[in-house]
From TrEMBL:
<dbReference type="InterPro" id="IPR000515">
    <property type="entry name" value="MetI-like"/>
</dbReference>
<keyword id="KW-1003">Cell membrane</keyword>
<feature type="transmembrane region" description="Helical">
    <location>
        <begin position="68"/>
        <end position="94"/>
    </location>
</feature>
<feature type="domain" description="ABC transmembrane type-1">
    <location>
        <begin position="69"/>
        <end position="260"/>
    </location>
</feature>
<dbReference type="GO" id="GO:0055085">
    <property type="term" value="P:transmembrane transport"/>
</dbReference>
<dbReference type="GO" id="GO:0005886">
    <property type="term" value="C:plasma membrane"/>
</dbReference>
<feature type="transmembrane region" description="Helical">
    <location>
        <begin position="9"/>
        <end position="33"/>
    </location>
</feature>
<keyword id="KW-1133">Transmembrane helix</keyword>
<feature type="transmembrane region" description="Helical">
    <location>
        <begin position="239"/>
        <end position="260"/>
    </location>
</feature>
<protein>
    <submittedName>
        <fullName>Carbohydrate ABC transporter membrane protein 2, CUT1 family</fullName>
    </submittedName>
</protein>
<feature type="transmembrane region" description="Helical">
    <location>
        <begin position="106"/>
        <end position="131"/>
    </location>
</feature>
<dbReference type="InterPro" id="IPR035906">
    <property type="entry name" value="MetI-like_sf"/>
</dbReference>
<comment type="similarity">
    <text>Belongs to the binding-protein-dependent transport system permease family.</text>
</comment>
<feature type="transmembrane region" description="Helical">
    <location>
        <begin position="137"/>
        <end position="158"/>
    </location>
</feature>
<feature type="transmembrane region" description="Helical">
    <location>
        <begin position="179"/>
        <end position="204"/>
    </location>
</feature>
<keyword id="KW-0813">Transport</keyword>
<keyword id="KW-0812">Transmembrane</keyword>
């Protein structure tokens, strides 16, 4: 289909908006690659010349940075996998299984969207302190597994799947679990990918709960660990070190989003069912 002048104008405006949106990221990257001697004189410009990787090398020389990176990967991957399991099971139950009180339970789950995480911070801290589970991977992962938005996303997706597909499987004597595993889960790949990406990014960026539960530096996630460096050490290393830490922490998120962005669009489009 031939594009009109209006289509070209909209495309040009979107490209311009994208360039403006990317300028701060390019500026941060440029400062991360500039020597501190240049940054002392001026922080303007997005062309890092002359450039240096010393700030990134200094960041990796911090003894616990690799451990913090490993902690973030373990927490993000574990939280993502468990969230996908729980949300898909709950979403399928709400969408397809007519059990007593289904509507009331679903509304109760959705009510969790209205409760800010700060409101349950003190009870969570007291609970895990009573169990003596602070500074463990369990304490970093478990409180974030209750994801009402994930349940809602999977429920809406399963509602949009034609019932005829399930009925065809049931005619072949497939049980409820078999239908879920062999029919519904393969069809829900776009929604699962979308939920997985959002969960991973949330887990990677999470700061409030990890800074509460991770009392030992060895259990810091990357966001908490790099935040702890933005004191005397960062001041001694200069502005370039701070920008390098920001690039180091955000690079995995940008890569994941760039690779899986089409699945996000598909997943959101396919969850608009009745």
């Amino acid at each position: 289909m031939k594009r009109t002048f209006g289509d070209h104008l909209i495309l040009a405006l979107l490209i311009a908006a994208a360039c403006v949106w990317m300028l701060p990221m390019l500026w941060v990257l440029a400062m991360a690659l500039k020597p501190n001697a240049m940054l002392v004189q001026s922080t303007s410009g997005v062309l890092p010349w002359p450039h240096t990787f010393e700030h990134f090398a200094a960041l990796m020389r911090v003894s616990l940075t690799p451990r913090w990176l490993l902690n973030s990967l373990l927490v993000a991957v574990g939280m993502t996998a468990l969230t996908l399991v729980l949300s898909s099971l709950a979403g399928y139950a709400f969408a397809r299984i007519a059990f007593p009180g289904r509507r009331a339970v679903f509304l109760l789950v959705m009510a969790g969207l209205m409760i800010p995480e700060q409101a349950v911070l003190v009870p969570l801290h007291a609970m895990f302190a009573g169990w003596n589970l602070h500074s463990t991977y369990f304490s970093l992962i478990a409180p974030r597994l209750a994801v009402p938005m994930g349940v809602f996303l999977m429920t809406q997706f399963f509602k949009a799947v034609p019932r005829e597909l399930e009925e065809a499987a049931e005619l072949d004597n497939a049980g409820r679990l078999k239908v879920f595993w062999s029919v519904m889960l393969p069809l829900s790949r776009p929604a699962l990918t979308t939920l997985g990406i959002f969960t991973f990014l949330y887990a990677w960026n999470d700061f409030l709960w990890p800074v509460v539960t991770a009392a030992q530096p060895e259990m810091y996630t990357l966001s908490v660990g790099l935040g702890s460096l933005q004191g005397n050490f960062a001041m001694s290393e200069g502005l370039g070190f701070l920008m390098a830490s920001a690039v180091f922490a955000s690079a995995p998120m940008l890569i994941i989003y760039a690779v899986f962005q089409r699945y996000i669009v598909q997943g959101i489009a396919m969850t608009g069912g009745k």
